[in-house]
Protein: VWFA domain-containing protein
Amino acid sequence: MVYYKLSKFYQFVVKNNYFCPKITEKLVSNYKLNEANNHKYVDVKKYKDVEPIVKIEKVDGMELVKKFAKDMENMLGRKMDSVKKMAETAEDADLYHEYNATLKFDYYNAMLINTLDEDGNYVELGGEFPLDKNEHFNRLSVNIQQSVIQVPTSVYNKDPDILNGVYMSEALNEVFVSNYEKDPTLTWQYFGSPTGFLRLYPGTVNLVQLPFVRYIQAATSPKDIIIVVDASGSMKGLRMTIAKHTINTILNTLGENDFVNVIAYTDYVQYLDPCFKGTLVQANQENREHFKLLVGGLHVKGEGKVKKAVKEAFHVLNEVREHVYGSLCNQAIMLITDGAMEDFQQVFEEFNWPERRVRVFTYLIGREVTFAENVKWIACNNKGYYAHISTLADVQQNVMEYLHVLSRPMVISHSHDIIWTEAYMDTVLFSTQAQSLQLMSSVAMPVFSKKEKNLSHGVLLGVVGTDVPLKALMRLAPQFKYKEGKKLKPKPNYNSVDLSEIEWQDTDDALRTAMVKGTTGTLSLDVRTTLDKGRRVMFLKNDYFYTTINETPFSLGIMLPQGHGKFIFTGNISVEEGLHDLTASDVMIANEWTYCETDSDPNYHELTQLQAVAHYLTGKEPDLRCDEVLLKQTLFDVVVTAPMEAYWTAILLNASGIDDGIETAFIGTRSGLLRTFRYVGAEKRVAKRFLTPSDKENLFTLNHFPVWYRHAVENPAGNFLYYAPQEDMQGSLPCLEPSISFCPLVPSLVSMCGRVFLGEIDGSVMSQLLQMGMFKSKKTKGDILQPCDTEYFSFIYQPSVKETNSFIECGRCQKAFVIQHIPESNLLLIVVQADCDCSRQYSSITMEPREMVLVFILNLSLHNASVKCERMKSQKIRRRPKSCHAYHPQENAKDCGGAAEMQLSTIVFLTSLFVSSATDTAT
Structure:
């Protein structure tokens, strides 16, 4: 597709009352659009020259998706193999390590490396630690030969438990390096120890966010949790403050595979949100934050009747289990109280004994220990754990012990389950801005002690894992084969991205359901997609092909637009001819695409894709792994489009050829090839950013094709497309003149006079056009980067109406207007009488997205609350984890807590995560 970038195109002012046909002829004549676009015949001629060697091949969507899935299976398999090797090494190292309480050992502390004291000497546990910027690790300064250790500030750097753990895990350093050498696409590798430290490879400094979610998911199975909190009068003051913090801390440990509810009790039982009465909701971030907000509003009153609340909690958990929903694994009640005077034995005999399917964890709040034995008895007789929390500082350490208890069955059975996290956005992994926003998933695995003396106790040594950016997976599926590639749309909380929020279907969730179930098949769907921050909408009919990625919880789907998406040009071009044209100064290729795998060897990391292709084709780097099909397509495209440079140069040499305000000519192809020709220097261009590296919207990127490309492929064949990027219209002349004015408008989504929507300039004309049926208004539900549902208003041109004119009654005057479609374009010409003000009779019509507010005349607030309630309770079909470890006969249920028994354990590592995050946020 070939395009011209015009600087004078945007604004035309008509001084006389020409009829639309005359204006159209004048427009086409003055701007010589037909003449300027004769380049299409140049392209056609060149294609005719190579026609004998050209093939048009049909794209088999099912074959493609299966191939991509197999490639991804192999790639993810290598990541899992690396993690397994880490786990085996750590377990073997522990087997031969004997604990030494007097061990003296120096290590590289991530917060101290390369730090000098006042005398210019390296501080203890610091030392010289070489760091080099590495392209593969987002240009962070790292050491690919050595890992580092981070110890939270709340733990002594040389505590015997820390030193023994660090010394034992030294064996991992060699494995980290070996893994990276064998698979240079690996990113961060880590080992998190329950004693509180994290070993990270490659070594670097200034960590601010540790793998909290990965650690919990790898160490425990899914769970149903009901938090029961005492809200009686005795809980006033500091006790309630501690209780609220305890609830929030528990909520922070939950994830997408967990389910939760919160009940408060006085002399009656009260659900924190009545909407969730008698059920559990998924512990996603939205629901967790919702509960935290409600917890903040808790008030104390009355007398505490805990027995009723515990009965209610058992009722809900039994109901969940019987109706087969929730996590279908662990179940637990978390009782938060300052005392329990009632007799609970009858309750437990009725609901939980003898199987004890529901664990009960108890948290005694406050310094008073009068009822400590009662509260501890509840936990110890229901396979739970008791903790006494007397201050806010005790909350983190004591609350988290429940995770250690839930991990016992997995640890005792030595079930090395590999877990994959849901896609999440890692935004602040490092304190440097070098880490870009990117979606990723993590693969992790628990590490157990194999010492014979520990087998029956179930000792968790820690968790090993690595992160996999989703862009690494996307590179395995070449965008040129299926138009726009995989679409990723981050949510505000960056915690997950649901397929239903990526593709806005006009039908039900058939595609999502099929992919979640892990089936293989194809569907045709009508979908809507927005461009330009919701201002433009495209209605498409796409074919979707999907299958599962074996040995992982993932499914893969690709989309082919019906029609042009199913065919591709191929042709044999000599390497010499293609390479000559590819290295021309006016040519660039999509650097985010994978023409050659520069990640496969550290020596190639600094190469751009164009450099890598050139090195491969010239034989300088014969070992480079390149996509032969994509290279073949690229060479074909660059040779066929080569005559455009001479044609554009001829226009430049002809002075009259650039009088029309042409700034840039460019051509883009499906292979990610982009040719550009600048007619004026950067200082004279209106669109200074257009087609520069910072203009991601208009370039071929990993996530999408350029906006102008996507518009053009949906444009009727033979028609010209006119598109104005946002910056082009800054500082443009006013659209409406004192006389009669007209503006070119994009018909598929009315827009574009000075980048201002016609309805905002003149609501009366837009209202009249809607009434006359020349445009159709549609609302598109969606969301943008804010935590609310929004709707976009789009106005779709009805092509059956080619021209019309009318008058608008505006009190003392009549406003005349004429509208006509400009042939072979996506433009409409609108002529409006500008000296008749209708602003009092007609309000403006805006395209700005707005928060969805559902109107219900009788009780608006109640109705909106009901809609929100149903949305939060709704549970889309989901793929559950394959394994569940909720019980083991060798579990020692007598290890159920108590202030005298508290020890440094799993909780220290988890506590460090919160302390680190809080400290960095404050910083």
